[in-house]
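Action item from last week, closing it out:
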Amino acid sequence: MTNELKIGLATPVDLWSMSIDAKHRMLEDAWAAGVNHIFMADHVSFRDGSGTDGFVEIAALSQLHAEMSVMISIYLLPLRHPLPVARQLATMHKIASGRMLFGVGIGGEDRHEVEICGVDPRTRGRRTNECLEIVRRLMLGESVDFEGEFFNLSQARIKPTVGNSIPIIVGGRSNAALVRTARFGDGWIGVWCSVRRYRQALALVQQAASETGRGKTDWLHGYQPWVGVADSREEARKLVAEAMEDFYHVPFEKFERYVPYGTPDDVANDLAPFVDAGCSIMNLKVVAGNDSHSIAATKIIAQSLRNR
């Protein structure tokens, strides 16, 4: 399985401030380092109003390298209507055929972000389930009639047909997210969890999938950690702690047990058990001295994980 491991790298920090030629060079460097795809998050108005539209950014990213894939991880699906989402997927299928992974989730880090989009946070899971059912059917080219708790559609259709060319990877730490994966997803992507919980989660997905007739699915399960990389553990910890506290506004100690940091070899050793447990998509948010250092570290981590 390690030969099939896909390595994702979060959008380099300085990418969008560079010239177009420098953007191309940076992604070429990432590709040469063994990165399969660039991923980024999706937020409408996170914490202080920050955010990035996931589809807009991956559309731009997809045009900076002819072979590299792109991924939204995670797209806040319950904040959207399924029909425009299916249209966006069809458009990505046209402009970057075979080069997109679609990570979806319900959100949860900022309840206010959900509320200001007019969505009751208590309904996020049920809304997401309806969205996924509708989007899946639209991707397959069906004319969709649907009457649900949140969405009502009559003869809805999206062309061109996307089929199963865009894997749907479901995020979330709850058992409900694992059941959602079993019903609608091509894989589950974990975050902030132990290896023991990761193994347990994949087993729960498999069990639930078997109960719904999807037991033979060729799963693409993932893991998405922040990691800190430097010449010493002390410096690596300092770098990743500052970055995470600035982003989440939560003390680093709340995350620390789930955050590998140290040299690239240290980080690879910490992540290897997830690959052994069944992870085939390793999305790395690498915090290092600069983007070039992050890419160089990713190369070492990727080689180590793939050569096990």
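Closing note: The first helix runs from residue 20 to 32.
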